[in-house]
Amino acid sequence: MSAENVKVKYVGSALPGNAETVVLFSTTANTGMGANFISHAQLNRFYMTLINDQAGTLNAYSSVDRGTNWTKIYTAAVAASAANSESPYDFLIEPYADWKLEWVNGATPQTTFRPAMALQGQRNPGA
Questions:
Q1: Three-class SS of 27-40
Q2: How many other CB atoms sit within 10 Å of the CB of residue 19?
Q3: The whole model's pTM is what?
């Protein structure tokens, strides 16, 4: 039986600084998740909304050796969120033994940075 929705707590910098890289989520970063945790727990997607007042970049990676080597599988430039709005991001993660998502902050430190994240058992895209 799959978990339909598992909330993920962000534990990085409260307000990422000038060109700082923060890990938003990783299956290898002190989470207690073993290799292939995603498939064993029948979790298929990672869904995130982000409120940020400065630009940055999202980078997603996969690993087959518990994070010794990471392969970049996705990158996206992210503009500052419009006033009173959040930007959604949805990733299919089920094929990966390990997966992580990083935020690379732009040249200007954030004054608002609020990611809301969840692992989802549903295979179809999040809403």
A1: CCCCCCCCCCHHHH
A2: 12
A3: 0.89
Tell me the two tokens of residue 25: 């989520």
CA distance 116 to 108: 22
Structural domain count, the chain? 1
> What is the C-alpha to C-alpha distance for residues 125 and 112, in angstroms, rounded to an integer?
27
Query: Do residues 60 and 100 make contact, with C-beta atoms less than 8 angstroms apart?
Result: yes
Identify the domain containing residue 36 by its residue range: 5-120
- Give the pLDDT confidence of 1-20 residue by residue, as tens digits: 445 788 889 988 899 999 99
At residue 30, φ and ψ (nearest 5 deg) are 55, 35
CATH number of the domain that residue 112 is part of: 2.60.120.680
Helix residue ranges, H only, the chain: 37-40
Q: What are the pLDDT digits (tens) for 50-96?
A: 999 999 999 999 999 999 999 999 999 999 998 889 999 999 998 99
In a domain, 28, yes or no: yes
